[in-house]
Amino acid sequence: MAIPQQGAHPRHCKATIEDYHMLDFSERLNTSSYVNVVFEPEEEEVAAMGLRVNLADQTVYPESFKMHNDTLNMIAKLWNCPKPEDFDAYGCYAGAGTVGSTEACLLAGLALKFRWRAWYAKKHGMDADQVRGVYPNLVISTMFQAAWEKLFKYMDIQPRFVTPTYSTFTLDPSKLKEYIDDKTIGVVCIMGNHYGGQYDPVWDVDKVLDQINKEQGFQVGIHVDGASGGFIAPFQTGLPAWDFRLKNVLSISASGHKFGNSCCGTGWVVWRQRKELSEHVAISVSYLGGNADSYTLNFSRPAQGVYVQFYKLLRLGMEGYQEQVDNQMAVAEFIRKGLSAMTKDGKKVFELLDAVGKSEQKICLPVVTAMLNPALELGFDDIDLQHVIAQGHWYVSGYHMSMHHPITEKTMPLFTDQSPEQAMFRVVVKNNLTMKMADHLLREVDAAVKFLIEHGKGFQHKKPKTAKGTPQKLAC
Asked: Which residues, in sequence order, are CB contacts of 59 under 8 Å at separation 6+?
């Protein structure tokens, strides 16, 4: 397609775009993605207002940037960040609004790298040029999201993967000593992995790092990747401290556009302090008519994400978010029980894999993860199931238990005790998934299972499946 020689009428342009959009899956029936898709009319008006504002130009739009800082402060307090010593000078906590949690993770990773570099150079008597030649590493579980793959590939950081069991999906703190050395810039704890919604035990990792740092003379800290859990965990009772209440937590990131309920492209990162952390990624901009600090990788961007996030925090308040989380967890439990009730020849059709279904630590994201029961030896897998469910208009994400190593690109298993060819699927319960809709989804799943059993190994979907062992691209 090329740019047309002549322009067209506005109504024709809009109709053309509507045709493209109409052929997509329905946003509300997409249980694969975590991204919020429901907006009130006032929100849409606020978003349109923000489209006209370049948030990078703080001198022209000072009140919009103050809104950014006010939003940042609310989120920092939600995560129990201690008030920095320089708060009065800046009027806000150390942090930034970002383009999704990917940019937030990249900024947090870079801050950890530069903090480590200064420490390592001093320890080994190196100058700035010498220490740049040292290849640092970052410890994270195989449950990582795509943002970290970009950090490893783009920022010259070696990944050190801790592979969990499929009974937990979480990083094992007792194994950290095997992965940490004086080139380790930090440990990433995932608060709600995108596969099953489980929380890494940040509270135990904090204790182990205390011991390692004391014994080895290191200063290894934690980044909490709260892409999905940053706006869920604060509203769950019975969860140990996971945020800035733990002294080794140096930074936290989250997607505002997921359970923060902002619009797509909204993210946040908060650091414990500016010194030795966010100061490493700040640049000063003076050519737009004044002096201003920028903490983002990109520069010009619309203010719509900040506008909608600020609206949502005011609109819901703490009680509103609490009610949403409670409701989402209730709907997730309804779906979980519905899947558990499906049987064939006296055996359960599905094995539940999420925290509620399998782990000792039952507090997690509103996500239901399962796989077809291997004991049934069915002639189809979870990817086939995804395709048949889609015929009922629902999009449920099926994928294999494997990943590509971001540096070597070799296929790796996600778990120590499951084949990389084993498949599973997930249902993300967002605030738009009602009980009535969940009931319909369960009926479609049940119908899809019966259809596939009836057709057996003779079923072949018109769209080819990804070859076994090849990781699926997950929507975040």
From this structure: 288, 289, 290, 292
Residues 6+ apart with CB under 8 A from 41: none
Cα separation of 370 and 427, whole Å? 9
The one-letter amino acid code at 271 reads W
Token representation of residue 380: 């189809």
User: For 270, phi and psi rounded to 5 degrees?
Assistant: -130, 130
SS3 call for 351: strand
Token pair belonging to 345 = 């020849």
C-beta separation of 94 from 273 below 8 A: yes
C-alpha span between 363 and 351 (Å, rounded) = 19
Sign (positive/negative) of CA torsion 458, 464, 470, 473?
Answer: negative
pLDDT tens figures, 76-99: 999 999 999 999 999 999 999 999
249-255/221-225 β-pairing:
parallel
Using a 10 angstrom Cβ sphere, with 0-12 exposed, 13-18 middle and 19 or more buried, the burial of residue 39 is middle
For residues 59 and 66, give the distance between their C-alpha atoms in angstroms, rounded to a whole number.
Answer: 11
Give the separation between CA 37 and CA 430, rounded to whole angstroms. 9
- pLDDT, tens digit, 9 for 90 and up, residues 28-54: 999 999 999 999 999 999 999 999 999
Rounded Cα distance between 114 and 186, Å, is 11
**Closest by CA position to 194, among listed 324, 106, 306, 102:** 102
Average per-residue pLDDT for the chain: 93
State which residues of the chain have pLDDT below 70. 284-292, 457-476
Q: Which of 358, 39, 35 has the alpha carbon at shortest distance from 227? A: 35
Three-state DSSP string of 399-442: EECEEECCCCCCEEECCCCCCCCCEEEEEECCCCCCHHHHHHHH
Alpha-carbon torsion 111, 116, 122, 127, what sign? negative
Asked if 69 and 432 touch (Cβ cutoff 8 Å), the reply is no
Q: Which two tokens stand for residue 259?
A: 């359970």
Length of the chain: 476
